[in-house]
Amino acid sequence: MSQRPKIPSWNVLGLLPAQLIMLLTLIIPVGIIILVSFSTRGPYGGFDYVFTTAPYKQILFNEGWSGELEFNPQYLIVVARTVILSLATTIICLALSFPVAYFISLQKTSAKMLLIYLVTLPFWVSMIVRVYSWIIILGNDGVIAKTLRALGLGENMGSLLFTDTAMLIGLVYSYIPLMILPVFASIEKLDPALVEASHDLYGSRLTTLRRVILPLCRPGMAAGAILVFVPCLGAVLEPVLLGGGKTMMMGNLIQLQFGAARNWPLGAAISIVLMCAVMIFLLWRGIQAMRKEGREEGA
Amino acid sequence: MDMSRPAQHKKAVEIKDVSKAFGNFQALKPVSFDIYENEFFTLLGPSGCGKTTLLRMIAGFEQPSTGEIALRGTNIQALPPHKRRVNTVFQSYALFPHMTLEQNIAFGLENLGWPKERRTARVADMLRLVHMEKFAGRKPQQLSGGQRQRIALARALAPEPEVLLLDEPLSALDLKLRQAMRDELRTLQRQTGITFVFVTHDQEEALDMSDRICVLGDGEIQQLGTPADIYEEPSNRFVADFIGETNFLDAEVISLDGDRATVSIPLGVTLNAPQKQAAMGSRAIMSIRPEKISLSSQDGQITTEGTIVGANYLGGYTHYVVDANGTQLRVSKRNSQSRDRTLEVGQSVKLSFAAESARILGA
Helix B116-129 vs helix B101-111: angle between axes, to the nearest 10 degrees? Predict the structure, then answer.
């Protein structure tokens, strides 16, 4: 029987720098946020460390003058909008990425490198600049509106800017590279012989796509979905610039509480709720993936 | 005479003037031949000879640059791969990793629209045929190479193709398994009665399994015939060299008489032997197989003397290298008795062979 080599206990010290960074940049700050979320709002912003669960109650309820709780859906609406917009972004990114990634994978190696470079090119430009450019495109005097007007269409079309649609366009634009790259990677890994085998076994193009290519690219699409969905939940820029601050997402709500509203404990509480939601989602995906692997090994 | 292929056999595949060029590279020069129903037909050649290209054109993965391919008399030129009644066993097997073995085998049947009961019955039959019924619910990753090979066969045979194409299916297996799979493939072909078109670069495999072999080299047909035809009557130097082992001796053509030629060879003798493509006044070669030379003098045979310069004992056979008059000859001697004496290096021996065993070929 082979035995695992014994690792001297002092070897663990080698991990110390990494652990230190994790502690300083993740665990302590999250701890502080948790602390703040259970604190009382200070009279002029900030917080006083007096334990209370009020910030969490505030997410769902208004507290009347006499202390009675009254259901208040306004934050829930923001949460719902955030989830719906994030889901929509993820789905649109998926639908657009697959053909793009497939097209890239069919090119010669040199063209492939160039196209992948082009996909990642936006990352070299500041996010703010990129999102700002959409104001010019979508605005009242923007490219789209002017073109439509010149064509005699959309005379009475309102501005696209500062709508949920604009936010959605901005979100898709910002996060689609994060979907294209993993989907491309999974298509690249696909054995071309499998596609030929499907055709050989009387599978039409559609059958081959549906029963062979898509199922085998599922891991890449799942990875891409997480990479898009999770940052979407915390998006701040797109709602501010393209939603015009009229419609909020959770990121803006949190920002607002720490900023103008001066309600740090509420902002902290919403942050913690958002973080927990993401963690539960990822945990659920992880368990699913583990179960699937277990099934395959155990079969 | 080709006894195993009576004339009344119907044509399964007709290849007419088919050629293939990739850009400026001519992968296959125009070739024409027929493959008959119920035949184990082998495309044999070194890598890059165009054999896989030819197979892929029958399957429909490549389009011929010129010429036509017909399947059971119908031109299939315009049909995409999924509309051709041929199935392929891929070199890498190409089993779908996300499907169970049953699902893999049923895939083709589903696409053909077989009803469920018939499908289930066929999948069970196929698993039984390849002795894998216990593994039905497994995934391909859980199988060994040989088992994957069997499932790939079952999957390709399940839809009852008119022709089964096999692209070097044994090359990924180890030697022992390869030997066993040869017999299994041959048995499967007889049991199912389906035409097999088998691609390989392994001449031993080809000789062992095939009804007929098409030897391809440099993008053209070098010879087409039964294994015995090809081994015993090679039509040119390429075939004689590629199939089995042989000795080549420079030969000077003295006279030509139809399919026989009189030549003089460097062993200092003149002989009259069957010839192909030799011409008066031009260089020719004589090919003689190592096992056709005996290490003793025989009456009525070409006899010469030589010295043993190398001996390799291989169990059933001993391979000698003999220097005769400055020409090195490979001689294979069967060890027909237990503890047959191995001849020593440096020993003088007599060599003899029948002129009828030699072949004169154009160089």
Answer: 130
pLDDT the model gives residue A156: 63
Per CATH, is B245-362 categorized as 2.40.50.100? yes
Residue found by looking up tokens 């696209």 in the block: A160
Asked whether residue A2 carries a pLDDT value surpassing 60, the answer given is no
Per-chain mean pLDDT for chain B? 90
Contact B96 A299 (CB under 8 A): no
B113 shares contact with chain A (CB less than 8 Å): no
pLDDT tens digit sequence for A186-243: 999 999 999 999 999 999 999 999 999 999 999 999 999 999 999 999 888 888 888 8
For residue A210, the 8-state DSSP code is: I
Residue spans of the domains in chain B: they are: 11-237, 245-362
- Give the tens place of pLDDT for each residue, B13-46: 999 999 999 988 999 999 999 999 999 999 999 9
- CATH number of the domain at A81-250, out of 3.40.50.720, 1.10.3720.10, 3.40.50.80, 1.10.287.70? 1.10.3720.10
Is the domain spanning B11-237 CATH 3.40.50.10330? The answer is no
| pLDDT (0 to 100) of residue B118 | 95
Which residues in chain A have their CB less than 8 angstroms from residue B137's CB? Answer: 299
Name the least confident of A132-136, A149-153, B164-168, B310-314: A149-153
How far is the C-alpha of B329 from the C-alpha of B323, rounded, in Å? 6
Q: What is the Cα B249 distance to its own chain's centre?
A: 25
Distances from the Cα of A72 to the Cαs of A39, A57, A76, B154, in angstroms? 21, 10, 8, 64
CA distance A82 to B312: 80
Among residues 276-305 of chain B, which lie with CB inside 8 Å of chain A? none
Half-sphere exposure of B360 (CA within 13 A, CB side): 30
What pLDDT score was predicted for residue B83? Answer: 94
The answer to whether B94 contacts A299, with C-beta atoms less than 8 Å apart, is: no
Closest partner CB to B107 (pick from A196, A201, A215):
A201
In chain A, which residues touch B (CB < 8 A)?
191, 193-194, 196-204, 207, 211-212, 215-216, 296, 299
Give A298→chain B minimum CA distance, Å.
10
Taking only the tens place, the pLDDT of each residue in B122-166 is 999 999 988 898 998 999 999 998 899 999 999 999 999 999 999
Closest CA to B193 of B44, B2, B9: B9
Mutate to test the interface with B, among A200, A211, A212, A297 (most CBs of B within 10 A): A200
Please list every residue in chain A whose beta carbon sits closer than 8 Å to the beta carbon of residue B96: 194, 197-198, 212
- Chain centroid, CA B77 distance in Å: 26
Q: How far is A295 from chain B (nearest CA, A)?
A: 11
Partner-chain residue, chosen from B94, B107, B137, that has the shortest CB–CB distance to A191: B94
Residue among A196, A207, A215 minimizing CB distance to B94: A196
Cβ-count burial B87-112 (b if 16+ within 10 Å, e if not): bbbbbbbbbbeebbbbbbbbbbbbbe
Q: Pick the closest to residue A194 from B169, B90, B145 (CA basis).
A: B90
Residue B142 contacts A, CB cutoff 8 Å:
yes
Q: Which two tokens stand for residue A160?
A: 């696209």
